[in-house]
Give the backbone structure.
Amino acid sequence: MKKLTEKEYQDLMQRFADAWGVKSQQVMAIEEMSELQKELCKYLRRTENSGEYTKEEIEETISNIQEEIADVLIIVTQMRSIFGADEVDKMIDRKLQRGAERLEKWMKEQK
Ligand SMILES: [Mg+2]
């Protein structure tokens, strides 16, 4: 399967949002985020009580987490289109820059 270009990806996200409607996609976003939360909790439980779970059960959870991350990224990308991609992107830049500054300050304090 060929990888979508950024433009194809964004167009598809907008088409999903247009076709299914904003309300339905918001409900879907809430649902998908809770599915990811559930799988992350399951992973923590299974790895913290590792003796009680098989390697296969832990691998299954990792695969479920990967699937739920994909679902969340898809639906969150639609939320980004619906609520304003440019503003979201500016906020991402601001937050990453602030995070980088905090990291730098923290690393200096460690020396
Ligand atoms: Mg899902």
Observations:
- The longest helix spans residues 55-83.
- Residues 59 and 69 are 15 Å apart (CA to CA).
- The chain is about 85% helix and 0% strand.
